[in-house]
Amino acid sequence: MANREQDSVVILMSVVQQLVQQDGEENETIFQELLQPFFAVHGNMELNREGPRQFSGVQEYIERTVTGYSDPYFKKHFRMSRESFEHLIRMMATYLNTNDSGVPVQTKLLVTLWTLANIESFRGIGDRFGMYMGNVHYIFLCTTRAFRLNSIEFIKWPTMAEYTSITQRFSFPYAIGSIDSTFIRIRQPLKQCHVYTNRKKFCAVTLQAVSKPNLEFIDISTGYPSSMHDASVFANSQLGRNLPTLLHGTPFLLLGDSAYGLTTTLMKPYPDNGRLDENSSSCLWLPMCRFLPIWNFSWMITLTIRSN
């Protein structure tokens, strides 16, 4: 359970960080250039942008409110159990430095999880957690960057020894994962807008993911324009190129929907041409491919991301 919940967070943060990293770096450069004359006069002064300051909004929300949440209510707000969250704190403590800001790792993670799980402005989130919206935004960027850089600690392709135990949990013989894709909305780009406009008439990039039966992610790939067909995204992804090698000499395979091509390592449903018997038609729909809609509606920010 802990791995599944943490994997979904890392995937989301990888997507968000990839979308906002360029804008964030440009804004930081501009910010530093504008303040350079001030630093020349007053010396080298630490900005401490994510540090706590005097604030007139909600006070001690975490100490007085979050600590009193029941386990189900905590999971409802932050999308993971307290046990998973405590494990996440231990894993990320090394990467989320608090010495220069005074903001605890727990606070950084709670702020980031809340931002990802809810459709709310940085101003509203800052008021809830007792911070200015600029501090919330900076904490969010730093935390998502830390997760992206260490995503290999969370999202791992299973070893050969794990294949057998995974396939025993599938209802399909020798399956070790289900593959599917979803759209992540972006702002309309200035160039090549048509490339990123999909069949649903909005601009987006494609997220391709592979999941175990327990909805734990084992591979992701993102950034491809949403006008690309799922089969093309798979063929151009690192997984698509490496899958024959990963499963070479084994009977194991992935399950996908009808958008994918049929190969020895990827099984798709039978085409419904009106000639299927009862046993064959039962394989038309693969319930294992439900994991991305669940992921989308757990992390509401995926429905509202707007970035170049």
TrEMBL record:
Pfam family, one: DDE_Tnp_4
Domain of life: Eukaryota
Location in the cell: Nucleus
Cofactor: a divalent metal cation
Coiled-coil regions listed in the entry: none
Primary location recorded for the protein, binned into one broad class: nucleus
GO CC aspect terms: nucleus
Record's keyword terms, sorted: Hydrolase, Metal-binding, Nuclease, Nucleus
Protein name in UniProt: DDE Tnp4 domain-containing protein
Organism, as annotated: Daphnia sinensis
